[in-house]
Design brief:
Length: 340
């Protein structure tokens, strides 16, 4: 059993958010995120700018996390950090800082897989959030990943389906860009979709193997659809924005649900959890809640604060690894293409 006064500091720096959190026995005492606004002007994350911003943000963010948790750094039992996957420059900042701080405090270091953390965020003790029972299926959906994972235990995870090209979050953001919406566009498509008719326009669902995904063809279909209609009516997007967004979101959510249904049928597992930035999407949340009623699934949807990149989920995995004494070696290095 983990000692009562065990405090784990989690550090997340895989993309463009610098985050730090402190956990004690599954309870998050602080969860601080510094979001980088600089990328909005470029329509996407610029890796070099992201790593520089991490260097500026990491010390104040960690300081704030410790302050909010009302502990001193000398009370920390271990430091957990995101080793990968992610942007190499961003990961290097978090990895180097974590190693240095752990060395200076003479406490263990815990390396965490970012995608495993999205899944295990469900085990954070938070009001209104109940942890799934093993085994369960996890749909991890973000700007960089789309996977279906069979989770048999905290550390026994098997990818049974994944995208063969682009991630669902990228499909949302690129489609939003085609529609002239600012970055990040995914949440804006969700916002406009709530005012539109989801069956006004038809977009194709890519055909691949039963548990895998593909989104590159969908992005191309959206581009050609917009070009054709704008050529006929220059005001087409402006006049139909809500309906386009609703129809696109309806297609993507339906596609995700088709794959989940296939996974449930293939494995016989009816406990389903979602994770990753796109799990904040209202359409996928509603579809899962409806599936719970219709198919008798047990659905687990994380709190919004644990959907996007955050350090609370890193701290959670760190605490689980600390219990197992799965400490990282002092020579551990960042891994941009780290697998589950």
């Amino acid at each position: 059993m983990i000692e009562k006064n065990c405090y784990i500091l989690g550090i997340e720096s895989s993309c463009d958010d610098t985050a730090a959190a402190v956990i004690n026995n599954g309870v998050i005492l602080s969860n601080v995120v510094a979001t980088q606004k600089i990328h909005e002007a470029y329509g996407g994350v610029v890796p070099e700018l992201a790593s520089r911003a991490h260097q500026q943000n990491i010390v104040p963010v960690v300081h704030q996390a410790l302050q909010q948790a009302n502990i001193d750094k000398k009370q920390l039992s271990a430091i957990a950090f995101t080793r990968g996957p992610g942007l190499m420059g961003s990961l290097l900042v978090g990895t180097s800082f974590s190693k240095s701080l752990a060395f200076g405090l003479d406490i263990p270091l815990l390396d965490v897989n970012h995608m495993q953390a999205h899944i295990l965020a469900h085990f954070i003790k938070a009001e209104g959030q109940k942890a799934p029972n093993f085994p369960f299926l996890a749909l991890t959906i973000s700007g960089g990943h789309t996977q279906i994972v069979k989770v048999s235990s905290y550390f026994d995870l098997e990818v049974i389906g994944q995208t063969i090209d682009d991630a669902v979050g990228e499909a949302f953001d690129k489609s939003a860009k085609i529609l002239g919406l600012p970055y990040p566009g995914g949440p804006l498509i969700d916002k406009h979709a709530q005012q539109g008719n989801p069956k006004k326009f038809i977009f194709p669902k890519p055909k691949v193997s039963p548990l895998d995904f593909s989104f590159s063809g969908l992005k191309t279909a959206v581009l050609y659809f917009v070009q054709k209609n704008v050529a006929e009516n220059p005001n087409f997007i402006e006049e139909n924005l809500a309906d386009i967004c609703a129809s696109l979101q309806h297609t993507i959510v339906g596609y995700l649900m088709d794959k989940l249904k296939n996974a449930v049928k293939q494995t016989g597992i009816t406990q389903v959890a979602i994770g990753g930035g796109v799990s904040a999407n209202s359409g996928i949340r509603k579809a899962l809640q409806e599936a719970e009623q219709k198919y008798g699934w047990r659905v687990h949807i994380p709190k919004f604060e644990f959907c996007t990149d955050n350090a609370a989920m890193i701290a959670m995995v760190g605490e689980l690894k600390y219990k197992q004494q799965q400490f990282a070696d002092a020579n551990v290095t960042a891994n941009a293409r780290m697998k589950l």
